[in-house]
């Protein structure tokens, strides 16, 4: 059985010291597993993948 999860995740990389401190204090287990992030799409939301890519591209963020 394939247990791989596919998600789009945005990781916080700048100025995250305060957030990581809160996470370490109040949710230490999750803090140990993964850095501060926002899950943008879960596995049931990214099919069809082409549609998600097109939608993100239409935002013109880059």
Concise summary:
It contains three helices and two strands; from the N terminus they run βααβα. With 62 residues, it is of the alpha+beta class.
Number of strands: 2
Q: What are the segments in which pLDDT stays under 50 over at least 5 consecutive residues? A: none
Strand content is 5-15%
Instruction: Tell me the domain tally.
Output: 1
Mean pLDDT: 87
Integer-rounded radius of gyration: 15 Å
What is the succession of H and E elements? EHHEH
Strand order of the biggest β-sheet: 1-2
Give the overall form: flat
Topology diagram in text:
Elements: E1 8-11, H1 17-26, H2 28-33, E2 37-41, H3 49-57
Antiparallel strand pairs: 1-2
Write structural notes for this entry.
- This protein is of the alpha+beta class and 62 residues long.
- It has one domain.
- Helix content is 40%, strand content 15%.
- The chain is built from 3 helices and 2 strands.
- Strands 1-2 form a two-stranded antiparallel sheet.
- It is flat, with a radius of gyration of 15 Å.
- The termini are far apart.
């Amino acid at each position: 059985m394939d247990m791989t999860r596919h998600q789009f995740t945005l990781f916080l990389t700048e100025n995250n010291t305060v957030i990581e401190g809160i996470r370490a204090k109040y949710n230490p287990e999750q803090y140990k597993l993964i850095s501060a992030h926002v899950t943008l799409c879960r596995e049931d939301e990214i099919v069809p993948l082409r549609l998600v890519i097109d939608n993100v591209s239409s935002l013109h963020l880059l």
